Structures are given as C-alpha cells and as structure tokens.
Amino acid sequence: MEFDFLNKITSSEKNAFKYSICTLTTRIEEYHGMVSSFINAGFNTLECEFLYIDNSDYNAADAYQGINWFLSRAKGEYIIICHQDVLINRDQRADLELRLAELQELDEHWAICGNAGAAGPNHIVYHISYPNNVFKNKGQFPQKVTALDENFLVLKKNAMLAQSNDLSGFHLYATDLCLNAEMRGYSAYAIAFNLTHKSYGNADETFRKSRGEIIEKYNRFFRNRWIQTPSTVFYLSGSNFRWLYANPVSLFIKRMVNGINKRRK
User: Fold this and answer.
1) 157 vs 15, 42, 133, CA distance in Å?
2) Domain 17-219, CATH 3.90.550.10 — does that match?
3) Is 244 exposed, middle or buried, given 0-12, 13-18 or 19+ CB atoms closer than 10 A?
4) Tens digits of per-residue pLDDT, 19-39?
5) Per-residue pLDDT tens digits for 148-186
6) What is the rounded distance in angstroms from the CA atom of residue 90 to the CA atom of residue 41?
7) Could you tell me the residue ranges of all domains in the chain?
8) In the chain, how long is the greatest CA-to-CA distance?
C-alpha cells in the first residue's frame, strides 16, 4: 500500500494569519467603523482576517456559541474577540505586539489577556479609554487575573480554549474562558493596551441571570467527588479536610450506596 495520503504535522505549523479579529455584531455600520479603526492602527488585511456573526436581524448565535464558532474557524496565531463598539484609536498594533512580547517573556503559559480584569475581591485593574477623552488606568501591568472584561480579548490560538457548552447569553463569557484556561494549565492577564470603548456596559437582568448560571455551573463542576476510572479510583477536593472523606471507610460507603441505587433501577 502507498501511504502518500498521510499528513505529518509538527509543533511549528504556521498560521495563515497573525490575527483573527472576531466580533458579534448587531449594528453593521458601527462594526464597519470598528474594522476601519483596526486597519488604520496597522491590522492590515494581508496579515489579519476579520470574522463576524451577524445578529442584526435575529440572534444567529449568543456569545458562548458564537465564540466557539470563531475559535474553531479562526486561522490566526492570535484571536482577538472584541465588541463592535471599540475603536483602536489610542494604542496601535505595534503597542499590542510589544505588550504580548513582554507577556510571553514573563509567562510563556499565558493563554488569554485583555485590557481590564480582576485579580480578586476589590482588586480590579483596567487600562482603557471612553468617549470625551476619559482615560481610566488602575493597576500594575501585566497583572495576572482570574477574570477579564469582554470589550477586548486576545487569545493564543494554540492554547485551544473554548466556551462552556452548558452556558449561554452575552455576559461573563470572558470569565468562563479564564477558568477554562486555568483548568488547561494556562494563565490569564490584564495588559496595558489602550483603546476607546464607547459604552460602560450594562448589568441588567440578563447579566444577573448569567451570573447565577456561571456560579451554578462551576459550583457543580468543582464539587467534592470520587472519580472512578477503569483502572483506579481517587477523591477530588480543594479542601484541606479532604482526608475526612478520602479514606477506605468513605469509599466503602459510597460503593454500597451506588450498588443500592443500581439495584433500585
């Protein structure tokens, strides 16, 4: 048999573009203004692809579903996910590349970064402008964070992040990506990249709904539990008192309960 159909891959595969710039749109004219600002800032169409989902007539996809579409189809080394109401009219492409190089030098395992985020309770950082020349800057950068704001995100393509399949809506998807990065052994950072965001956000009822759903999802995911594999069994817990449960007596009781449940079914 001839095996010339086999395709060898290596870790040095080149991406078709330097950047994939991805946006969910509801106002096409505003989106065109955003794209123009990127091009004027040095994100030319030879090295950058612009991908969008058109939600102007109806919701073709929410943020969680839509970003997974972007992440699966983007061909850039870096994937930028941003709002349609941002303008790259402060810092330029060269500034972003300097920030990314600094971040790579600091932590080669970073996977996602943005211009605003939080490292913990009452530790919010940001480097961003708003209309009427309002510039807001707080924190030391780059700053490792647990969550990011959604207005502007940069993801490494090869980190292979994804949104949760069991979450939906248009809020807190950057937090979901940061948690996804941490679970995969990567880090999230806020960086000093200044742009103009034309709105301050809106914590409406849909935001509160998304907040409740992400709390419920990760409380369930990070629960204390026994994991049985075909070859071993072990107990997962973040508690310092897990030894109370991860012992032969507890395992025996759990197996007994599972056996009773099986027989009932």
Assistant:
1) 9, 20, 33
2) yes
3) exposed
4) 999 999 999 999 999 999 999
5) 999 999 999 999 999 999 999 999 999 999 999 999 999
6) 9
7) 17-219, 225-264
8) 69
